[in-house]
Specification:
By secondary structure, the chain is an alpha+beta fold. The protein has two domains: 3-110, no CATH class; 181-361, no CATH class. It contains 13 helices and twelve strands. It has helices at residues 3-13, 15-19, 23-30, 40-47, 53-70, 73-86, 92-110, 148-159, 189-198, 244-250, 280-283, 315-318, 339-357; strands spanning 114-117, 128-132, 135-142, 211-216, 233-236, 239-242, 256-257, 259-263, 273-274, 289-293, 298-302, 359-361. The chain has a six-stranded mixed beta sheet with strand order 1-2-3-4-10-11, covered by helices on one side. It has a four-stranded antiparallel beta sheet with strand order 5-6-8-12. Strands 7-9 form a two-stranded antiparallel ribbon. 43% of the residues are buried.
């Protein structure tokens, strides 16, 4: 497909994004050689002509966010600066982060918040201050990237060439990538994903007062992660596993990380792997809540013991976020205190321990 065809498709499918990009800028990002993944804006441009749901929804969410942002004259300069950063030809992590901030800002505006981008500096600071119902909350946006070693392995795989097959034959080469890091002895995939999301980026700090960590999960690195991973105990391929996103936020050092566990009538098999590190909320009371923003789902997970909780008065706006799934969220609302949330989390830990004690772990 030619660049012109990509440009025409983008203008039809995502007109608001297209309006912030010149045709020359689109051609420029399309010409960028990928690493373990495509240049993030180029990925969105190509999504206009592809049927891969993850990429198409991410494109539409980005376009909708830009629509909301352009309605606010005071935000347009900020938006253009972020779009320029997103078109970076080498530092893909900066490009992905800029797009994540655009999507977060647009979603907050759509939900009815007043949003003020905060001044940027070398010191880590929240991206936005949002207000509703007379309350103000700081929002910091993170866009987690694939483990560095795994990204390098995947890039080498894409760059490799296989031998030309004999006539009538087809060569198929596969590669298994682990975005959270390849498990070493005594580790498993779920534990490494949990650790990725339990980790606070170097130098990050939370503002005084209510503070939300917005985790954008629409980057290409995390296409295999979905809302089910934010449940404490799930079934996959006829086996039980600990939801790694839930563990990364609510887990404790002793939390069982089940993976390939089969229920038994009696205690059998080897002991389940334990997490070995505290979850994000155990590490820091500074985060009032985390918002997980998937392409088709938005989940709100509150800290059960924050230094400053989410004000109940902003619940209407939080529950108006695009794609919000209250049934998959972990919130104190509609209760006045966090007691019910603490009880719910404690019960989830009991279920995990019970499943670990009556499962056969492969």
């Amino acid at each position: 497909m030619t660049d012109s065809e990509h440009i025409d498709a983008l203008k039809k499918v995502a007109p608001h994004l297209a309006s912030r990009l010149s045709d020359e800028r689109v051609r420029q990002v399309l010409s960028v050689t990928g690493t373990h993944k495509a240049q993030p804006v180029a990925r969105l441009v190509r999504a206009a002509t592809r049927d891969f749901e993850f990429d198409r929804l991410t494109l539409l969410n980005t376009d909708t966010a830009i629509k909301w942002a352009t309605r606010n004259e005071g935000i347009r300069t900020w938006l253009d600066r972020k779009i320029s950063t997103a078109c970076n030809e080498s530092a893909f992590e900066n490009s992905a982060a800029a797009l994540a901030e655009v999507r977060a800002l647009g979603a907050l505006l759509e939900a009815g918040f007043e949003v003020e981008p905060l001044s940027e500096s070398r010191d880590p600071t929240p991206e936005f201050e949002v207000s509703a119902g007379g309350e103000k909350v700081r929002v910091e946006v993170h866009c987690k990237q694939m483990n560095g070693e795994e990204a390098e392995r995947l890039a080498k795989f894409y760059a490799s060439t296989s031998e030309r097959p004999a006539k009538g034959n087809v060569n198929v080469t596969t590669h298994i990538a682990h975005p959270g890091g390849r498990p070493r002895q005594g580790e498993n995939v779920g534990q490494n994903v949990a650790h990725k999301f339990a980790s606070i980026k170097a130098g990050a700090r939370q503002a005084e007062g209510p503070s939300i960590l917005w985790l954008d999960l629409q980057d290409e690195d995390w296409w295999a992660i979905g809302r089910d991973y934010a449940h404490p105990l799930i079934s996959a391929h006829d086996a039980l596993m600990t939801g790694p996103l839930w563990a990364g936020l609510y887990g404790r050092r002793s939390t069982p990380i089940l993976e390939g566990a089969f229920a038994e009538r009696t205690t059998t098999g080897r002991p389940a792997l334990r997490m070995g590190f505290p979850g994000l909320f155990q590490q820091s009371a500074g985060w009032s809540a985390a918002i997980l923003a998937f392409p088709r789902d938005t989940l709100i997970l509150e800290n059960p013991d924050p230094s400053a909780g989410i004000p109940l008065s902003i619940a209407p706006e939080l529950l108006s976020l695009p794609w919000v799934r209250f049934e998959h969220s972990w919130m104190q609302w509609p209760h006045q205190t966090n007691r019910s949330l603490r009880q719910r989390i404690a019960e989830a830990h009991r279920r995990l321990r019970g499943a670990a004690s009556r499962s056969h772990v492969l």
